[in-house]
Design brief:
The protein folds into 2 domains: 94 residues, Ribosome hibernation promotion factor-like (Double Stranded RNA Binding Domain); 46 residues, SHC Adaptor Protein, CATH 3.30.505. The protein is elongated, with a radius of gyration of 23 Å. It is built from 4 helices and 9 strands, in the order βαβββαβαβαβββ. The strands form 2 sheets. It has a 5-stranded mixed beta sheet. It has a 4-stranded mixed beta sheet with strand order 1-2-3-4, with helices on one face. The chain is α+β, with helices and mostly antiparallel strands. Strand 6, helix 4 and strand 7 form a beta-alpha-beta unit.
Length: 185
């Protein structure tokens, strides 16, 4: 877990930093690595202690902020908010039932890279695997991709019946590749 703690309108405290890091470590059970956490601890009007936490992991961003008279209570309340959101997210994933629909068979072929480098006429096939691709919506495909911890997922679109690909972009967003009908000349 990559944790960044910033102190605003107060002196940096190693005790508060250690407390925040200890509390954030407990959230690992809800979400897989890599996790980036930005924490801003501050004091406003010399009596209000604030804790703002932003967690980013595997394409999701969760925010929690709290304000109280005690710094540790603010941190606890913000962590509790984030924990509730993570539990809701996990429950949603567990409750998800994929739609049943037609399956299509797809073949995955692994080719040797050196067969392209050395100029062979035909690429060298290392392995061929057949597998079924299920029909689902784009939302279901993204959720399934998250569950499987994959960077992309091939699926059959419920609406069109075409094979599509959903993938995780380097900026954390998702991309969708949808085949277009062939243009007749």
């Amino acid at each position: 877990m990559n944790i960044s703690v910033t102190f605003r309108h107060m002196e940096a405290s190693e005790a508060v930093r250690a407390y925040v890091e200890e509390k954030l470590e407990k959230l690992k059970k809800y979400i897989d690595e890599p996790i980036d956490a930005q924490v801003v601890i501050g004091v406003s009007k010399k009596i209000r202690n604030t804790a703002e936490i932003v967690l980013q992991a595997r394409g999701i961003t969760i925010k929690g902020a709290e304000e109280s008279g005690d710094m540790y209570a603010s941190v606890d309340a913000a962590i509790d908010k984030i924990e509730r959101q993570l539990k809701r997210y996990k429950d949603k994933i567990k409750r998800h039932k994929p739609m049943s629909g037609p399956e299509r068979q797809v073949q995955k072929t692994v080719l040797a890279a050196e067969s392209f480098d050395e100029g062979h006429e035909e690429p060298i096939v290392i392995k061929k695997v057949n597998f079924a691709v299920k029909a689902m919506s784009v939302d279901e495909a993204v959720m399934q991709m998250d569950l499987l911890h994959k960077d992309f997922l091939v699926f059959v679109d419920n609406e069109s019946g075409d094979i599509s690909v959903v993938y995780r972009r380097s900026d954390g967003n998702f991309g969708l590749i949808v085949p277009q009908p062939l243009k007749k000349s």
